[in-house]
Specification:
Elements lengths: L18 H9 L7 H15 L16 H26 L3 H18 L6 H33 L5 H4 L2 H8 L1
Length: 171
């Protein structure tokens, strides 16, 4: 390979008006008037028309069978109502249940403070006070219920029955 010819850059030194003429002589071609302005406009027009749009995100849609949708919705509704029913069923605290809880708490605390030789007396007292007396009171309630039912027609019997009556029968 041969050496590249050494160009003489004398044409760049001199009058600026004659640069275009010297360029024409040196390179052998003439530059059209307003060449750069026209080329700039044409490039900008091409870029505007060929603007690249960013790729769109594909959204994936999962298809569910309509029958499966109904089954899922029904099971969710069932679980919600079941939960609400359990909450309402267990959420009712009556005075009797509160008294029972307080009594059992008192019994536990009192039994911790006793000496070993006093435990028998304490259990007998507890048995008499708590269990026997409460059983007697519930029996009296049951007797009162039956006495009231003698004076009321059988059709009104449903008005007297409630949760406490069922608890009384079970005790």
């Amino acid at each position: 390979m041969g050496k590249a010819p050494k160009h003489n850059d004398k044409f760049l030194r001199g009058d600026k008006n004659s640069i275009a003429e010297k360029h024409k002589e040196y390179l052998g071609m003439e530059m059209p008037s307003d060449y750069f302005a026209k080329s700039k406009l044409s490039i900008l027009d091409k870029v505007r028309t060929e603007q690249v749009e960013p790729p769109k995100k594909e959204t994936k849609v999962r298809y569910m069978n309509v029958r499966l949708q109904y089954m899922v919705a029904a099971s969710v509704v069932f679980l919600l109502f079941f939960n609400l029913w359990l909450f309402n069923f267990n959420g009712n605290t009556t005075d009797d249940s509160y008294d029972l809880l307080m009594t059992s708490e008192n019994v536990l605390i009192n039994s911790l403070l006793l000496e070993d030789d006093e435990v028998d007396g304490y259990t007998n007292e507890l048995l008499i006070n708590e269990i026997v007396i409460k059983a007697e009171l519930s029996e009296q309630k049951l007797d009162n219920f039956f006495m009231n039912s003698l004076f009321v027609e059988d059709s009104l019997l449903d008005n007297y029955t409630d949760d406490k009556f069922i608890e009384t029968i079970i005790l």
